Amino acid sequence: MAFITKILVFLKLIWMRMYYWCFDKSLRKESDVIRSVLCIGDGFIEGFGDRFVVGSLTGLCNRMNNSFKQEHKLRMVWQFINGGKYGSTTEDWLPSDRHSNYWKIVDRYPNVQVVFLMLGSSDVL
């Protein structure tokens, strides 16, 4: 009887470890590499027009940051940098002009891997 109990405990232990290995993402080691995403653009990137709650950050960049942190399939750490400027138009972000917003922001963060660009919503104004 004791032998059967030991086998059952052993099988339960194997089942539990298989379950954690397959389904529990909190046990997986995160990568040591930190990836950076620079979000540049108009007021929507900065947070204009978003709902405001005391104690929380607004804007598309911060929402993407929160959704990436909640996604358990991603083992890489992503850092989002908010470079939005309220009231800026597409012309303000042209890289051909050395004094544009593009160069002011991009020169500050030379080591980003991804640049997320959102423009056009303030062009009509």
Layout: helices, strands, pairs:
Blueprint: H1 2-23, E1 34-41, H2 43-46, H3 60-70, E2 77-84, H4 101-106, E3 114-118
Parallel strand pairs: 1-2, 1-3
What features would you describe in this structure?
The protein is an alpha/beta fold. The protein has one domain. It has four helices and three strands. It has a three-stranded parallel β-sheet with strand order 2-1-3.
Compact description:
This protein has 125 residues and is an alpha/beta fold. It has helices spanning 2-23, 43-46, 60-70, 101-106, and strands spanning 34-41, 77-84, 114-118. It has one domain (29-118).
- β-strand percent reads 15-25%
Helix content: 25-40%
Distance between the termini: 82 Å
| Model regions low in confidence, pLDDT < 50 over at least 5 residues | none
Given the helix and strand composition, which structural class is it? alpha/beta
Major sheet: order of its strands? 2-1-3
Describe the main β-sheet briefly.
Answer: 3 strands, parallel
SSE pattern, N- to C-terminal? HEHHEHE
Apparent shape? elongated
Give me the number of helical elements.
4
Radius of gyration, in Å, reads: 23 Å
Structurally, how many domains make up the residues?
Answer: 1
> How much is the average pLDDT?
78
Number of strands: 3
Supply the key terms:
three-stranded parallel β-sheet, elongated, 125 residues, alpha/beta, 4 helices
